[in-house]
Design brief:
The chain is mainly alpha-helical and 90 residues long. It is 70% helix and 0% strand. Helix 1 runs antiparallel to helix 2.
Amino acid sequence: MLAERERRFAGQAAHEMRTPLAALRLELEEALIHRDTADPFAALTEMLRSVERLEHTVIALLWLLQRDASGQTRGQHRGLENREPGSTGL
């Protein structure tokens, strides 16, 4: 049962991280392809947003792992919604 839960978690984690990574890759490729016409500030801003989304996903996954390891429930742990943007809280 635990092994199945771990496999499901790993699959979900991979899926959750794949989307922001794909978006970041696309933004980087677009910035390189259109570097003469693209606004570098806008491109960097979008890339930073993608990194922040990925960072939030990783923080959420780590929070779930810590919660499961300690047996805490959501009410016993400080929620992600109360954290400062960009803060790992770890």
